[in-house]
Amino acid sequence: MKENKADKGSENLSEMLGVLARCAAPGAKPATVAELDVLNAGFAGPEQWLGLRYTSISSERVEASMVVQQCHMQPWGDVHGGVYAMCAESVASILATMGAIAASKTHAVGVTNSTEFLTPVRSGVLDVVATPVRQGYVSSLIDVAMFQRDKLVAVSRVRTIQKPTQQAHGR
């Protein structure tokens, strides 16, 4: 029997939300290596295209990294600003989703993303760190810092809103 992609996506979403719910629980320890593997394997959108891999997830901080590739570059050889914005929205949404899950079994989506580019990046590894400014019941504000070899290269501030998950509505 052929596997239904929608069923597999639902299964991945369920596993991913389970990991985030566990990490969001009061007093919870950060995600384990196995839990990070579940999350990293479950993303099929921007995270996959970017090569963004989550390296640490807790209720107070999300960290990820990616190797800069040719497809991330502007024609003149610097990382495209949209890459930074996608990285910021990805890690901020994960952090905000943990707060949303802890409150009401919802997830978070970005509504504003302000990214400042400080230093051009042309190669190597980009490390991304998200920390909460404020996590509320309706929206969250997340600061994101991006580094290369411990040098700050870009900063973002992302506002998210909470939305019901598809799973919560039985889809």
UniProtKB/TrEMBL annotation:
Residues that span the membrane, as ranges: none
Entry's Gene Ontology molecular function annotations: 1,4-dihydroxy-2-naphthoyl-CoA thioesterase activity
UniProt entry keywords in alphabetical sequence: Hydrolase
InterPro entries: HotDog_dom_sf (IPR029069), PAAI_dom (IPR003736), Thioestr_dom (IPR006683)
GO cellular component, one term: cytosol
Thioesterase domain residues: 77-152
Record's keyword annotation contains Signal: no
Keyword Cell membrane: no
Similarity section: Belongs to the thioesterase PaaI family.
Protein name listed in UniProt: Thioesterase domain-containing protein
